[in-house]
Write a structure and sequence with these properties.
The structure holds 2 protein chains of 2 kinds. Helix content of chain A is about 10%, strand content about 25%. Chain A contains 3 helices and 10 strands. Chain B is α+β, with helices and mostly antiparallel strands. In chain B, about 20% of the residues lie in helices and about 30% in strands. In chain B, the strands form 3 sheets. Chain B has a 6-stranded antiparallel sheet with strand order 1-13-3-11-7-6. In chain B, strands 2, 4, 5, 8 and 12 form a 5-stranded antiparallel sheet that branches. A two-stranded antiparallel sheet of chain B has the order 9-10. The chains are: A alpha+beta, B alpha+beta. At the A-B interface, helix 1 and helix 2 of A face helix 1 and helix 6 of B.
């Protein structure tokens, strides 16, 4: 296993009993919620190697949103871990990763969709559930976001290394049951999650599982 | 390239442009002086909420760099463009574009008032201006593809800009299997360490092409066979 060399595993001292919000998000389900500046969100990989596909928007101006390319070049590294600042498309810090017991998270692999499943796997996969279906459904009910707002997301707990020759590989996960990541909001943000329902990819052992979400003030 | 020439135009360094490359046409971009960078975006001209999706493009072809044989996918599983020729071998999907603040921090202030059309432009604003001409805006400014530039990733994940990836005369050819709105700016790569603001010009050459030129892309991955079928179904 190719362990992350530059990551810093950082445990949190936050007490789950004191969280102001604590829910389990079922495998394959969407989640949309506002996080106020200063609040901390923990995403908890309950059973291990579950992809939690996540997007962030400014609550005040949802056209301002997470920008993968700015985030990567500002930190000069493709992996997200403790200390990573997630930047917006306007160059503002949106959230900071303040704890991480997994060590590496992907932001290049994107989210699954009916249409990309057809390309990647087979035409008969078209009618399987997908992250983009979750995103579109949550956006439609919320009303502030639409398809145009769905951009490249973070895949918490996924391991997608880039090789020296420019290859992109989906490695076995480095997460495990009980690993978690915590993000502190630097502005009021909308958090949009699809707890990935992908059944065609070995990266989650073909077994989508629930994730726990906790918020502290 | 012997096909009928439809357009031959040079975008100066710092310039921005957009055009629809119709189904069956070929757009060649040529680095005239060496060291150019073109930040590129692609949209379905008929339904502009459909646009280049770099994560889908990269994961279905298991690559982070893009070169000959690769297809550029939309979020709808269709192929907006196929890279049918490329003499420099590596185009970057990671670096994106700078904004005004980043350009000012790197190169200093270069205002129009003093510099006229040599003023310091930035990729974000250039693309926003060009997107605005088609009714598009900030919500549509997604990950960009940086043609002619190379950024390596070390085994610890660190990004390293590789100078000299493209020489004078290097070119890349994009075949459009659907009507594709191309939005671009010829502007320095954000990770280019050159401390001088010195974006390079790029020539655009548009011609009609035979679909056969894209066979190298269609057959390079099983995924692309399905991608071309998806694309053709848009024109049933």
């Amino acid at each position: 296993m190719n362990l992350p060399l530059n990551s810093s595993l950082t445990a949190s001292d936050k007490n789950p009993a004191l969280a102001t919000y604590r829910e389990t998000l079922a495998a394959g389900a969407p989640w949309l919620k506002e996080l106020k500046a200063g609040q901390t969100l923990r995403i908890h990989d309950l059973e291990g190697n579950q992809a939690v596909d996540t997007l962030f928007y400014s609550a005040a101006e949802p056209r301002e949103r997470y920008d993968v390319q700015r985030t990567l070049r500002r930190q000069q590294s493709i992996y997200l871990t403790t200390g990573t600042v997630l930047y917006s498309n306007l160059g503002n810090p949106m959230l900071t990763i303040v704890a991480d017991t997994c060590g590496r998270h992907d932001t290049l692999g994107g989210a699954c969709a009916q249409e990309s499943n057809v390309v990647r796997y087979a035409f008969e996969k078209r009618y399987m559930h997908s992250c983009r279906d979750n995103y579109l459904c949550a956006c439609a009910h919320d009303g502030r976001l639409s398809k145009r707002d769905i951009s490249a997301n973070v895949n918490f707990f996924m391991n997608v290394p880039v090789t020296a020759s420019g290859g992109l590989t989906f490695e076995d996960g480095i997460s495990a049951p009980g690993k978690y990541v915590e993000l502190r909001a630097e502005m009021d943000v909308i958090v949009l999650i699809s707890n990935c329902p992908q059944l065609n990819n070995p990266c989650n052992a073909y077994n989508p599982t629930p994730a726990e979400l906790l918020i502290w003030d | 390239m012997n096909e009928s020439l439809l357009l031959d135009e040079t975008v100066p360094g710092g310039g921005h442009a957009s055009l629809i490359v119709k189904r069956g046409q070929l757009l060649r971009l040529t680095d005239l002086r060496g060291g150019a960078n073109v930040s590129l975006m692609l949209f379905n001209a008929a339904e502009k909420t459909e646009r280049l999706n770099l994560p889908d493009t990269l994961k279905c072809q298991h690559t982070a760099k893009l070169t000959t044989g690769h297809c550029l996918y939309s979020d709808m599983g269709r192929i907006l463009a196929a890279i049918v020729a490329d003499t420099c071998g590596w185009h970057d999907s990671l670096g994106g574009v700078s904004n005004q603040q980043e350009v000012a921090e790197k190169y200093g202030v270069g205002r129009y008032q003093e510099l006229r059309n040599a003023f310091y432009r930035n990729g974000t604003d250039n693309l926003l201006v060009e997107l605005g001409k088609w009714g598009l805006g900030l919500s549509d400014l997604l990950m960009t593809l940086n043609l002619f530039s190379r950024v390596d990733v070390t085994d610890t994940g660190r990004l390293e800009f590789v100078a000299g990836n493209s020489s004078a005369g290097d070119y890349v050819e994009l075949y459009a299997p659907m009507n594709t709105l191309v939005v671009l700016t010829a502007i320095q790569h954000p990770l280019d360490p050159n401390p001088e603001y010195a974006p390079k010009p790029v020539k655009l050459t548009l011609s009609a092409a035979d679909r056969q030129v894209a066979e190298i892309c269609r057959t390079s991955h099983d995924e692309n066979v399905r991608g071309f079928i998806n694309t053709d179904r848009f024109f049933l």
